[in-house]
Write a structure and sequence with these properties.
The chain is 38% helix and 18% strand. The strands form three sheets. A seven-stranded antiparallel beta sheet has the order 5-6-16-8-12-13-14, with no helix packed on it. The protein has a six-stranded antiparallel beta sheet with strand order 4-7-15-9-10-11, with no helix packed on it. By secondary structure, it is of the alpha+beta class. 39% of the residues are buried. A hairpin with a 4-residue loop joins strand 12 and strand 13.
Length: 475
Amino acid sequence: MYAETLSNDLKSLLNNTLLSDIKIKGNDGVEINAHRVILAVRSEVFKCMLLNGMKESLQEVIEFPEVSSDTLHVILEYLYTGRVTEQTLTIEMVAEAFHGADYFLLEQLKCQIIEFFKNHLRNNNVNKINISAKVLSRLLECMESTNNEFVNLLCDSINSMSLKSIEYFNLNFKALEYILSHVKREEGTKVFSISEYDLFHYVIFWAANEISEEALSFYESCLPSSKTLKNFNRNSNVSLNIYNIQGHAKYQSTMITKTYPLLNLVKLERIHPFIISNIIEPLDGLIDSKTLIGVYRKQALLAGKHICLNDISLQWDDNARGSNMYLKSTSVVVSNSLSHEWIRTAVPISEQDIFEWDIVVEEICDCFWVGICTIKEFDVDYNSWLGKQAYGWVFGSIGVICHNTQEENGPYTNKYGKEFKKNDRITVHLDMGERTCSFSINGERYPIAFRDLPNEIYPAVSLITSGRARIEPRQ
């Protein structure tokens, strides 16, 4: 109670002319009344300015061209009271506030701003990816360094969902480039939850939107969606309306400038050769001839091998796991639980294609289960054995498969493959077109294990103590 009263009393001094002996001025020209003694005691930056003979020590007004008066108000409220309120800190200025806290070396304030943002996302779950994209764009405009917890949080929020759900105007160039580069640096992770062509598709539309509505309308009218291309692959009666290349010439120069660094982050060799030759190559200049030759060469070298053209984001979801499981990295999960618990990835699989990934048994346990799950229309329990649930389909280390069974501790009768052990590599083969799933152990493939799967699936593992599982793209 006393601390609350003291905080309120100190807050009443903020921007109060009573005993004020200095003014703080932002880049918008607005001045805020303050007190030297409070600033010097509460901030090392202000202490150096006011007490170490710097020019600011003699000034009645200190100007900060790097930040606005609204941001300075957040800084001063924290310095005076030890906290910031939602009346001062808003989602519209959260990026600038974090930049200000970083500029003034206020680590605790940075933590408060991050918590404010997390709470805002929890209360705005429907549109959180666009909120995160907008804040990330503004933050990267403000700050030179990207090595901080807030940038990582924003990227994690964006990467947990499909890139194509972000409205184009919410991502600036720096943010889009950083997201792509950041995702590519994640060990064992492929790009987003969409196919590589969808990524190309998004970059083109984003750049066109930067030019004009007319440019966006043109590329939308002529660049086929991945759904159209899938229909073409599956139904020979579907014809593609390949666009009038003359229209592209109107925007060619500007599009090359805007897309060149971004398209370098797209793994074109994972896009079907038909799409490369008939859809991408005619966009003259966007992909230079040397790069295209390299793409065709890589595809030729991969001929005869299985290429998963639709990539999935292989990252465990730290918010979708048993309470006694923890992540060593985005791709490695460890269990400390004496009873069954499970975890799923952050991004679902819902496209009509073949998806494959590996689960590496880094540490075996008595009950090590590899499989898939769904959460659609289910109230899932992560502190349980996934194999007994109607929303789980798993292959166990004892060589059996289970789905919706009540025989949690055996005996298990549905024999499927051989037993697996530490360092074994379990490959999951998911055919979303046929809605089937099968497994391999160290390259030895077994028949279809499950059929009639739902239309939205997550990779998953179910473990008990000492079990450790790594998820990777198929080797």
